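Lab notebook: predicted structure, single chain.

Context: the supervisor wants predicted structures on file for every construct in the current expression panel, including those that have not yet been purified. This is the next one on the list. No modifications to the sequence; it matches the entry in the shared construct table.
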Amino acid sequence: MAERNVRWGILATGGIAAAFAADLVDLPDAEIAAVASRRRESAEAFAERCGAERAYGDWESLAADPDVDVVYVATPHVAHRAAAGLCLAAGRNVLCEKPFTLNLREAAELVALAREHDRFLMEAMWMYCNPLVRRLTELVADGAIGEVRTVQADFGIAGPFPAAHRLRDPALGGGALLDLGVYPVSFAHLLLGEPDTVTASAVLSPEGVDLQTGALLSWESGALASVHCSIAGGTAVTASVTGTRGRIDVPSGFFHPERFVLHRDGRDPEEFAADPADGPRTSLRHEAREVMRALRAGEKESPLVPLEGTLAVMRTLDAVRERIGVRYPGEERADATVAAAG
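Prediction complete. Output recorded below exactly as produced.
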């Protein structure tokens, strides 16, 4: 693979798929080989726009395509388990959009499939691949602010959204937590790992999904993280991490920042800015590059977005949902089946 382009398949043709395809086109060692949608017309139109050779009107054909090195799964997250699982079982490598799945059970099933078929699998948590976020993480790991004591992060967008909107539809995994809260939770995990205790509170919609959720994550070390998400009002979308010897503040858009400021005790603030050569802050190219690097190296997962880390985030999201009382259709039935089998 090192001597030729990495051949991508794109499964689904919505907005995030279009954004990812546009960034792939800009990478000289990547090509979009095939596109799939449940509507052939959509796949053909998308393939024409991005220059893909083949368009399929079903997922199975893309999964079976031997000339596809890796599939980017861009469906709504309620379909991630089915779409990514189909591709893994067919021998394809997979990059799956966030949130990885609806719940930990589905996530663990995908990880098991990847290992069974010896395939690469990664959650498309582009924040973890962002060069400036990686720099922030390095500074914290190197002790620039001492021992981490608190993390704060929020992500809210202005509504109101009508009851028929996907963000309020339980059948589509609606609510603020999985769509938006995955970012603040993942940011806290990035800096502190999996929490030992989770508490949470939420305001639910009449349909039973969370309109806004606040969670307090705590660690035996004494560290705390306060995370918030909302589809009922736009928030600052900022983050900060405070340590025993300083603080780092990330302004609006913390998961794809333009800059952050390091405050160290006894020193002037230092600003770290994104390199213009890395492209627009909204670029998804960094996660695509990481996937291609890993594939060429023969790796089955990325050290930047490790599978155990993805499972840990899903475990925390499950814990938050348990505490706020949000369950999606079919989860009770699946849990009952697991209990009976156990």
